[in-house]
Amino acid sequence: MTSARVLYLCHGHPALHPGGTEIFAHDLFSAMRASGQAEPFFLGCATRLHRPLRPGAVLQAIAPGGDEALLSVGRFDRLMLAQTELTAFAHAMSELLTSFKPDIVHLHHLSLVGLEALVLIRRHAPQARIVMTLHDYHLICANDGLMLTCPEGGPCRQPSSDACHRCLPETPATRHALRRLRLNNLLSLVDQFIAPSAFLRERYVDWGLGAERIQVIANAVPAEDAPIPSGGFRQRRTFGVFGNIAPHKGTLVALEAARRLAAAGVDFGLRIHGGLGFQPPEFRQAFAEALTAASPLATHRGPYQREELPALLAAVDWVVVPSVWWENQPLVILEAFRHGRPVICSDLGGMAEAVQAGRDGLHFRAGDAADLAEMMARAASDPDLWQDLHDRRPAVPTLEDAAQEHLALYQELMQRKDAA
């Protein structure tokens, strides 16, 4: 294709906050740059929590190549997905859009970015086609995109202004209705949505986005030159949990399962890899107490850098993904399969779609520590099971695969624009 100028816009940068969305968005940018078939630019947002804001420098370079930058943002209305300090943001965005002249603007999240960005793109880069990847449920759910009811914590299957008011009673139902109207209006400016899983696509179709507007393109992870060895036939008793530690990630469920296994005298080990980030004191206390109750067979190894992940995966036999929310397509599942580690995950959402129970992994009832403990005990006692699941693990898309799929979509959108 003719080399397209692609602006990738994300709510963060993996150098400051290594979440799954930030990592994949930046990986896609890097793969696109390496392909030589596009001219990409990556723009991530940063707040005072990430780094001190620099007066007079709303746009800040973050990499020596000149094709990555940070956009400093101030206060943000998370309910309405709106910038509350719009002047500097709008000026910086209009300056970048006017100078870069993108053919494609690919948004990877609207948190910190805001719906106003869609209007600015249409105004200052009218030639650009707008693509948005739906990495989670933030557009549907004002409860931090978790689609969990409050205070019960169960999955929300029928969001509405009244249902949202019951979960978030401090916000009137009329305010939730206005949020939905605002979203309906401004999301009409998006030319194409992408969903990394069919499950997430279905949730957005149920919510009201047209099915024809959402294309499924799976997430991907870097190809490894030498996947970690399987280690031969032996007992497989070491489990690992990877990623940010938070209530919705089910870390406490995994620790309670570990406590139960320890009390039952099962020989195993559980390694928790990840940081607590900005979690509130009450959750930190609950995590510390759960870790103590499961010690010494369960240990917290702290946060890790991405380049450390292969070695950390090499030290475990099973990867546990105990999230209590629907997730989408967690990168850790793809990393586990890439490195030959079977997955034990909750039986819902994008996790259950990515892991086929009994074929390449195991499911347990989401939030049920006793059921997870039973699955872990089964896994620890049956090396044949590990080998069978290992041998049937699926192929994992590479970033090069993902770049080509995205390039094909960009080409189609540009041709559609030219024909209009």
Automatic annotation (TrEMBL):
Keywords: Glycosyltransferase, Transferase. Its EC number is 2.4.1.-. It holds the Pfam family Glyco_transf_4. The keyword Transferase applies. It is an enzyme of class 2 (transferase). Gene3D superfamilies: Glycogen Phosphorylase B (3.40.50.2000). Residues 19-224 form the Glycosyltransferase subfamily 4-like N-terminal domain. It comes from the Bacteria. This is Glycosyltransferase, group 1. The lineage of its organism: Bacteria, Pseudomonadati, Pseudomonadota, Alphaproteobacteria, Rhodospirillales.
